[in-house]
Amino acid sequence: MPRPKGKVAYVCGDCGNESPKWGGRCISCGEWNTLTEFQLDGRNGRNMRPAGAPANMAQSLSIVSTERLPRLRVRSDEVNRVLGGGLVPGSLTLLAGEPGIGKSTLLLRIAADASLSNGKTLYVSGEESAAQVKMRADRLGISGEDVYLLPATRLDDVLCNLEEHSPAVAVIDSIQTVYDEDVASDAGSLAQIKECTRRLIEWAKLHDTSMILSGHVTKGGDIAGPRVLEHMVDVVLYMEGDPISSWRLLRTVKNRFGSTNEVGIFEMTEKGLADVTDPSRAFLSERWNGAIGSVVVSTLEGSRPLLVEVQALTSPSALPTPRRVATGLDFNRLLLICAVLTRRTGLSLSNQDIVVNVTGGLRVGEPAADLGVALAIASSCHNVPVDAGVAVIGEVGLTGEVRSVPQIDRRVSEVSRLGLNRCIVPGVVGRGLAHYEGMETVSVRSVAEAVNACIPRGHRLRSHAGAPTH
Ligand code: TYD
Ligand code: MG
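^ thats the input. predicted complex w/ thymidine-5'-diphosphate below
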């Protein structure tokens, strides 16, 4: 039933629940201060169903057609990978990321690639002028005959151009800049984002256009605007990376048409984002033999094994409470590893500042990197390098035990593929592993065993060794 004209509802920015009354707390999800006033549909009758129009009828599941239009593939295999094989016609994809991370660069590339194989694409830029986008296109080497550029923020202009060009792919950069004149709030507000996205979805589904929206993220890393935006779209991709490094990761956070375990890896070059086809090799390219405090760790990004370098530096502290700095890994995990090294291997760290870094601006969130971090710290503390041909896998427990990690075979096979000759693995899984030509797998049950295997006692310098290892 159409709602009365001018009626308002209060929508929770977190869960999207609508309630007729304002309250300090959402009655559905219990979050505080998330309700925002929202003008209900039907002010101009646009969203009302005409009297007597046939309702959408349910049909038997057994006769539902599964015939689908083929996915639109773009030239970048990394983009196709995170999308689960390409863009699905009629789908909405949200690309979120911090300002300056490279969203517009990637979107222009996708628009241009899609136009080469799939016909017209529309690129709506709400943040930059046509000249600015053209300058970027020149930089990326895009001529863009079939890319139609629209610098606009009014939703009606966008919809008019969609009608006019009927593009196979449309990019809206960004959803926070688009506004619907019938909604009485500023662009970027909850009400605007919700209504504009709803109307864009409606259009996309009706015309089988694949739409990609870019979205800002807040300081906390959430997508700016309502959480409900993530619920509305089909695919949510996050672009991340340290702005000062050139690596960029594109993660699938939600995908109604594929796996969410996918990660695309890119390098930002002067000609835009380039696919990184062999990321492990790229991440280890600057590593040198004999580096003290450097250890190769075999980690998983989504379903993809990745070798990364963990570096640690310990130095005598001038402070009463020595500093611990973790870049690219969880700080509490570092504290845990330091405590285990002290108690279970006798390493004296209480007067040492410890800095640990994952190179390339990458973030390793999984405990499988624990043992590598422990060995990097031990290597720096003993002033002895861990051999460059060694890779390390394992979670560290509080009793000093090395615990197994998921998908160990994939990780070990990546170590072998990269030509490393020794892989330190958790004792419990060691025997079940396949044999890899030219690579020895060393099973360790404890951190102390791993330290002994990688940093032989005879090589340690007394002044750096702290208490003896048990
Ligand atoms: P941009 O795509 O504008 O980021 P976003 O849309 O996420 O805000 O990317 C801006 C950054 O990318 C900027 O710092 C410059 C850099 N960049 C390159 O290094 N090479 C390039 O070819 C392009 C187009 C941008
Ligand atoms: Mg941008």
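Residues 103-104, 127, 173 surround magnesium ion (ligand 2) (CB under 6 Å).
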